Amino acid sequence: MGLSESEIMKAKGILKSMNLPITLKIFENSEDFSMDLKNFLSTLSDLSEKIRIESVKVNEIPYPGIALTENIIYHAFPSEMEFDPFLRTLVRVSHQNSELPDKIRGQLRNISNVEIIVFVMPVCPHCAKVVEKVNQFAIENPLIRVKIVDVSRFPEFGNKYEVMSAPTVVINENIKLVSPSEDELIKWIEQSENELEYFSKLLKDGQIDDVKSIIERDSEKAVILVELLKKPEINVRLGAALLILRLIKEKEEIVENIKNKLKELLSEDNTNILQDAAMVLGKIGDKSDIEALKTLISSDNADVKEAAEEAIEEINSRNSE
Description:
This protein is of the alpha/beta class.
């Protein structure tokens, strides 16, 4: 993929503002795409004496790519709409300046250990803007690691995260955003470890299958569903309860942890939480859980008392069959 005359002229104009020399690493394998990337970088280095190229031949590498820095890697060809933002990113790297507003710099300052994967496609009208923005984040904070992946070229990579459109952003393996705004990106980067709020967001949006997929990859996250029963939004609580019932049929290993967490909720003051916890425990519990449910029989709230009685009856009925 050679550059056109107009692209060469544009590249010269943008790259002339570079400051410090930078070294771009090309991760090579035997694919034609790898050679395309190498030729592309070779052309850029001919256009600017401040661009150096280092080839890294590693047969085990799954995807060829370009490393702009230690924390910005492209598994995509930055052409078409991606071309200008890519060049501007090179200039920012050479100046060691993200060019972000002070407010956003402050928000990113305390972020650590975040990986962002941006899935793009050729001729995607919104991809370039998202890619350029996350690249700026990575320049500002080296603890933010960014990968740009062409999902049309590497569909198996996208399949891992059930990517259906572009741009799709995946943060720390779990948080998935489609065509996010700058505010959304910053919010979920800041809350990248707050899976409770992310699950809540998905359930509010009716994306119960997305939550299920995450838990299927890491069953230890199933206990988060119990915490969601404490949320005030009924659609979140209902979605969490339904998902618990679906998952225990497929993942027996999560049952005990879920039951223990549910029994902890039986000491809450909120009557909605008590009813939901009793209802779910009644559907998944056994006779060893009845004593915990009996603590609600003496409740002053008729609905809580009824929920506990029905749960106990359901357990007894199921275990007598």
